[in-house]
Amino acid sequence: MPYAVFTAEVITPRGRGAVATLILTGDADLLDQAQLFRAANGQSVSSQSPQRIIFGDWGSQPSEKVVLCRTADDQLEIHCHGGDAAVRRILADLRQAGYTTTDWENKTSRAASGFAEECATAIANASTLRTAAIALDQQNGILRAAYEQLQITDWNAATRAAATDQLDALLRWADIGRHLTRPWSVVLAGQPNVGKSSLINALVGFSRAVVHDRPGTTRDVVTAETALEGWPIQFADTAGIRAAAERIEAAGIELAQTKFAAADCRILVLDSAAPPNDETRALLAAWPDAIVVANKCDLPNVWNDALPADALLTSVTAPQGIDQLARAVIKRLIPALPPDGTPVPLSHRQIDLLQIARSALVEDNQNEYASATEAILAGSV
């Protein structure tokens, strides 16, 4: 007997995954009536054997190539291209055919508290196995237990001191928590033609940036994402910084300087085969916290003693020093790792509330502290 309600649910998260999966509930006759799917074997969806993998075309021309499987008499799965455009098209077709559509985010939002929703979202949006494993630990009860321990029933100096230690332990891992679902920003800067684009290509492992021996080739910020030791990283290649620049290039240089200042990690690239100049010295003085890279170390070093003692020697053509640079980036971004079972705050909302609670302890403000710690688990601000 057909279902009175037909539903279509996207169960994979948004992003750049290779495949998206939808689950359809209800009798398959509705899909056949809408003529949305054409199986390569020529049979209707309702006549296909359960658990059989079916390849075919979805929708009118140009069609989407999809894989369909009837997992039960009243349920089937559709697997399509993971991009948003393909998923939106299929959902629109299903709504027009009479299906009620939703996605896992909306379903989770209705079924769970804000805190539980944040945990589920962090797992779904984690881009590496390492960050997903940390997020999964939090969902399994570690983080909730830590937040529940923040509640103070007897407000006095001793309980405030204990709560301060607990908050400091949680906030120690705030930066890792912020980057479970978004990559760290690593920006390379330097004068033109020092090899920034080539270094990023080597670090990421493929040619993404424009590489040319003419100064001023990169006029915008070009980004490429990768994972180093399981941590998501976005490298940004910026316009070469020099005083004598044409108007369009100067705009790119200004953007580069802004991006460089906002980076989680800064890499200042020098050309060890080119003599130092006033602009290079100014960059070194302006950014003392940057990782300094002396590139093109396969060529004669003309800097001699002027080269910073802590500069990393690299060469893309040799190759040399690329792995050392990658390790230096990770050490700068993540100087310490949370041991297994460590509570790690998962969202900006949680981190903001933890900081409010920490300030309330310093100010001896019991009401503000209670409000902040209760809001963390309630999922409100």
TrEMBL record:
Pfam families on file: MMR_HSR1
InterPro entries linked: G_TrmE, GTP-bd, MnmE_dom2, P-loop_NTPase, Small_GTP-bd, TrmE/GcvT-like
Family annotation (CDD domains): trmE (cd04164)
Molecular function terms, GO-annotated: GTP binding; hydrolase activity
GO CC list: cytosol
EC number: 3.6.5.-
Magnesium found in the keyword field: no
UniProt record, GO biological process: tRNA methylation; tRNA wobble uridine modification
Keyword Hydrolase listed: yes
Keywords per UniProt: Hydrolase
Annotated G domain residues: 186-296
Listed name of the protein: tRNA modification GTPase MnmE
